[in-house]
């Protein structure tokens, strides 16, 4: 696996959504052409081409599934807020995601399409003896043939950054299938770790469910503390209308709590630690 340059070495002041001066990909441009629907999407996501023939995952607000614990019509905004948080923390793990008003099915989020390297998954579920020995893993259960089934994820440093990002964002649905390895479609084309499907995040109540528990209890590194400092100091208007003020304040508080704790969080034991299904 190619190394990934996932984090600059020094941050600037929190004066914009890109304090680390990360390279910026071009935004989508109308007119749009719908190439088809994504069959595994629970929120009616569509594959769309823009005026530059670039592919995007388009999630119209009107097609969002109703959830009991997230306000209706807010998931597209949470997708955009996740991208902004990724930029704010300097990790660039979320593909460019923007909110558009003039989409082919109305307002919604558009996220750059990523070609996933299916031959090199970063999270796997298999029998215990077939899991990579140097990966972070744990047991899931017993299958119908009485084999022990486990889940394991790569120790790649970008996944460590993603685990911290999810803890700060309070991501309730970090499945293995939401973590991709693929080329950057707009910049240098090198292999990159990507986090997609980030809409179930930023709730004010604890919701963290993830497959990335391999760093639980490990001390924060200085650069990770810098990332959290950026979040604690974030101005109110960085996230604009994408999440509400109570959610922005809860975001800051989670970052402050992690700094005080000084380590990666672990499962609380008070709620499910894994999304289901985990992949």
Descriptive overview:
By secondary structure, this protein is of the alpha+beta class. The chain has a domain of 190 residues. Helices cover 20% and strands 19% of the residues. The chain has a 5-stranded antiparallel beta sheet, covered by helices on one side. The chain has a 3-stranded antiparallel beta sheet with strand order 6-8-7, with no helix packed on it. Strand 9 and strand 10 form a beta hairpin. Helix 3 packs antiparallel against helix 4. The longest helix is centred in the C-terminal third of the chain and has 17 residues. The protein is globular and about 50 Å long. The two termini are 21 Å apart. The N terminus is likely disordered.
Q: Which secondary-structure class do the elements indicate?
A: alpha+beta
Q: The biggest beta sheet, please?
A: 5 strands, antiparallel
Apparent shape: globular
**Lateral strand order in the biggest sheet:** 1-2-3-5-4
Put simply, the count of helices is 4
How many whole angstroms does the radius of gyration measure?
Answer: 18 Å
Q: Please give the share of residues in helix.
A: 10-25%
In terms of per-residue confidence, which ranges show pLDDT below 50 for 5 or more consecutive residues? Answer: 1-15
InterPro entries: CHP03843 (IPR022292)
Protein name: SCO1664 family protein
Organism: Cutibacterium avidum
